[in-house]
Amino acid sequence: MRTDADAPQVGVILKLPNGGVLAPADLELIDALRKERSIIGASRALGVSYRKCWLSVDALNRTFESPVVATFPGRREGGAEITPFGERLVSVYRSIERHAANSAKRTLDEIIGALDWSYQKTASDAETEPRRDRASGR
């Protein structure tokens, strides 16, 4: 029996005309920053290096005219917070995700109908998965 976890998922990566990228990993980082209120806290929550998180925040802030994340080094109550523009950016991105998933549903149902349910992922399949390295832009 299939569950919601078995449902296909549509991922959205926005490759912006200025060379910036907005991807699911960026939204995970923004969510972690909102909860942890610091880059180091977000890095711990996500299990990635502080440097990678810092570089990702820097890339997000340089991609847009308005900052996505405001940082306050040395502040005890939290060294980072999502700006109003950052909150709006998340809202727009989530809307794009919903529209993409709804638009793709009929086609995905056709693809799901053609799946080999005895397929088992192997280590060599990991080589074909896209990298999620925000800091290097790849």
From TrEMBL:
Matches recorded under InterPro entries: Molybdate_resp_trans_reg, WH-like_DNA-bd_sf, WH_DNA-bd_sf
Gene3D superfamilies: Winged helix-like DNA-binding domain superfamily/Winged helix DNA-binding domain
Protein name per Swiss-Prot or TrEMBL: ModE family transcriptional regulator
Origin species: Methylosinus sporium
Highest rank taxon of the organism: Bacteria
